[in-house]
Amino acid sequence: MTTAHDGEIIVRQEGAVRRITLNRPKALNALTLGMAVEMTAHLRAWTSDPAVCVVLLDGAGDRGFCAGGDIRALYDASKTKSALPAEFWSTEYYLDVLIARYPKPVVALMDGVVMGGGVGLSAHAAFRVVTERSAVAMPEVGIGFFPDVGASFLLARCPGLTGTYLALTGDRMKAADAVYCGFADLHIAAAKLPELPTALAECRTAVDVKRALAGMSTQPAPGRLETARGWIDQCYAAESVEDIMYRLQASGAAEPTAAAATMSKASPTSLKVTLRNVRAAVSFKRMEQSFQQDFRIALAAIAGHDFIEGIRATIVDKDRNPKWRPHRLEEVTPDIVDRHFQPVGALELKFPD
User: Fold this and answer.
1) Domains and CATH numbers, the chain
2) Which of 178, 212, 233, 344 could cross-link to 184 by cystine, CB 3.0-4.6 Å?
């Protein structure tokens, strides 16, 4: 086995496998711009290397694959009007699409916490593995942002309205729910993970990889979203966020009431932007369309108030008391929402066929 340390990532060669390990365990392997650049370079180089047949993505430590992007860096950049946010998101999104389009099998090991940018790196891969420790979520509305990294394309295709529910609450999916909702493919017990590189080392094709993973997989513990479809589909089919909230609160049942309470703490602007983003993605023919739309929304968000305020309240001052503007759903006008979906000219992301 050959190992190369690039600081924030570790690259290993194990037979026909090239393994990229995100190496910021104290930060739950949150993705930095440098990590995205390094990963992109390796993946592009391996495309034409006949010795490389499989790529394995995982995270250092046993707490998570990747908890998201390095939002503190985005916060600091916003204070200096730096171009870092646009560079970070464009680099990250192009990397996610590279993984999605990769000509060789990419296996993403979604062990532990997988959120935000971690979903972007894993949920678009060819083979997505969850464990009993997996917690997969897009909780961005809680920090004044939105589920980005192309997640809207997946959320729009979840069974029923479960994707809308997940987007507006940021609820965590365990293994069975991640498979049910199309964010993962199969479950492997965490105790068997050390065997995975060896099992993949002799694989040469996607068929080989599928067979190797199937040989290690087991049924996960039962999930809960499939059985919750009744109230989720009824409540989240409403036309607006206000009507969704009304249906949740009017139900009187414990789960819908809890969902409404969670949403009531989120940024009202984020909720409305997210609902529009997910519903627009229903009609998208290509996953890349979601990344293009996400980039527009992200640039509008960093130029606005709630995202910066959400980061301040969550990881800077840590008072957990964001002051949203506007602070009521009724005050978020269509013009405010529309502002997030405007083309960004020369900055537009381009994905040739």
Assistant:
1) 2-134+173-216 (3.90.226.10), 229-347 (no CATH)
2) 178
